[in-house]
Design goal:
Elements: H1 2-20, H2 24-55, H3 58-80, H4 95-99, H5 102-132, H6 137-142, H7 145-164, H8 167-184, H9 195-223, H10 229-256, H11 258-273
Subcellular location: Membrane
Protein name: Major facilitator superfamily (MFS) profile domain-containing protein
Domain Major facilitator superfamily (MFS) profile: 103-292
Length: 292
């Protein structure tokens, strides 16, 4: 039930932002701020949950979160005054047409690859650290903080970066940085040596997520009609697919090919996918004209 609610709210939120902010620079900033909420939750959530469990009680965490979510829902009804417009019932864009569009597929792939990379790390890195570094419990819990912190910082900075660099170039560079960062991890024999590559992963992941979600809205604007629900649903499916498959196969790959080969394969895939971002440099419009 929580997963259903989360997917509905994330798709609707991004769709509202894309509809509200039509100008590309404003849209970049708005989507960057929205994605910083993901990182903020990842940073605060574990600490908040652990504190409440230890000092208040197990059920207190969920009761407070439920109250916060209901409060946000009430505020949305009051502030946004939602109404159903019969003219906008249903989407004007065919879901099938969107999902087979080559440019949307390329953008979606750029979301899946780094997402699956972080899912593989989350499911296997703590095990590898226990085997090779004799990592303590607090180290296992804190190791992903560099990713969350850098993700939060650079998702907020994306609005600035998007003003000076095109989305396809930021994503291309980000995929390469992710590949290089992942390649460095198996060679780290100390937890502190892992902080820079994990930080590089986090900042690149933030830039890629913001850039490609903004690019999906842009592609719909120039190649279809400006209805964003279906295309952001595709982006959300990409996130879920990446994390779900990555978590499922991480343990299997760890046992079959080992941590180093698994991580190196993910890194090489990210680097090899990066040149495809050139396709998004000048995607043709629905009138078959080039956008410069």
């Amino acid at each position: 039930m929580q997963g259903i609610g989360s997917s509905c709210s994330s798709v609707a939120c991004l769709g509202m932002l894309a509809s509200r902010f039509k100008e590309d620079k404003e849209r970049n900033s708005a989507i960057g701020i929205a994605f910083s909420g993901l990182a903020l939750g990842a940073i605060i959530g574990p600490t908040f949950g652990g504190f409440m469990y230890e000092f208040v009680g197990r059920s207190s965490t969920f009761l407070i979160l439920s109250a916060a979510i209901l409060s946000v829902a009430v505020l949305q009804i009051i502030v946004m005054s939602p109404e159903i417009d019969p003219k906008k019932l249903g989407t004007k864009n065919s879901f099938i047409a969107l999902i087979i569009d080559p440019y949307i597929l390329v953008a979606t792939g750029a979301l899946i690859i780094p997402g699956s990379g972080i899912a593989l790390l989350q499911s296997t890195l703590p095990i590898w650290m226990m085997d090779t570094m004799r990592a303590t419990t607090w180290q296992l819990g804190a190791i992903f903080l560099p990713i969350s912190i850098l993700y939060f910082i650079f998702s907020n900075l994306y609005g600035v970066l998007g003003r000076y660099f095109p989305k396809w170039l930021l994503t291309l560079v980000g995929l390469i940085i992710i590949g290089v960062s992942i390649l460095c991890i198996p060679f780290c024999n100390n937890i502190y040596y892992m902080l820079p590559p994990l930080g590089g992963f986090g900042l690149s992941l933030a830039v890629i997520d913001c850039a490609m979600m903004s690019e999906l809205a842009h592609l719909v604007d120039i190649r279809f009609s400006s209805e964003y629900g279906s295309v952001f649903a595709i982006g959300d499916i990409a996130f879920c697919l990446a994390y779900g498959v990555g978590q499922l196969i991480g343990g299997v790959l760890l046992n079959v090919i080992g941590f180093q080969w698994m991580i190196c394969s993910s890194a090489i895939l990210s680097i090899l996918y990066a040149p495809l971002m050139v396709m998004l440099r000048n995607p043709p419009t629905k009138e078959n004209k080039q956008v410069y």
